[in-house]
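User: I'm putting together notes for a lab meeting next week and I want to include a structural view of one of the chains we've been expressing. I don't have a solved structure, so I'd like a prediction I can at least talk through. The sequence is below, exactly as it appears in our construct file.
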Amino acid sequence: MNSSYGPAIVISVALHALLIAVMTFGWEAKPHRELKPMPKFVEAKLVQLESKSDKPKAPPKVDLREKRRQQELERQRRAEAEKKRKAAERKKRQDAEKKRKAEEARKKHEAEEKARKEKERLEQERKSAFEDALEDEEFLQEASDDSAAVMSVAQAIRQRIVQVWSRPPSARNGMVVEVEINFVPTGRVVASTITKGSGNAAVDRSVLTAVKKVEVFPEVEKVAREEPSLFERQIRTTKLIFRVEGLRQ
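Assistant: Thanks for the context. Below is the predicted structure for the 249-residue chain, given as structure tokens.
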């Protein structure tokens, strides 16, 4: 070992030993003092916060051209909506007017058609009434003519029978006999029947006897030849009434 380090080492060891001794004995000799904490003081300061709302805001930037464009678009939109609304109202009024006119035309047509049909009906009724009246008049005239012809023939038949009628003694004034006579177109009697007796058989037989005596009636033959339909309808079968009159009782 180098001799130059010896003194330094000795001194170092001595110092360490001294330090240890001081620390050991020095701490024990002095009483331990309790350290009291120092009070802490809080210093308050008034701090005024600035309100953010109080700060002036920078005005937003406005694009005037865009604003005008938007306003123009809004104006056009409203104008278009108003135009459509007016067009819809106009169309609604036009449709209502068309419907009203169509309804009026329909009612007018129905009224005219009803009046036309009523006129035709009345005209047809008048025509029918006139034709019926004409037919009735013709019928009545024909019936009147036929009736006159029949009455004339019936009177002729009755007169011929009365001329040959011989009343029995038992006959009394007021006795009535109804007889039915059947003819053929030649005017000949083919049958005769009492349809309503007088109550006296002799009187009834006397009428039938008178009819058989005449036998043929020229007046009947004439009608059958000239007016066969009239003969068939009203003369072929003829009913006559004979009354007993003029007897002295």
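A couple of points you could mention at the meeting. The chain is about 65% helix and 10% strand. The chain has a mean pLDDT of 82.

User: Perfect, that's what I needed.
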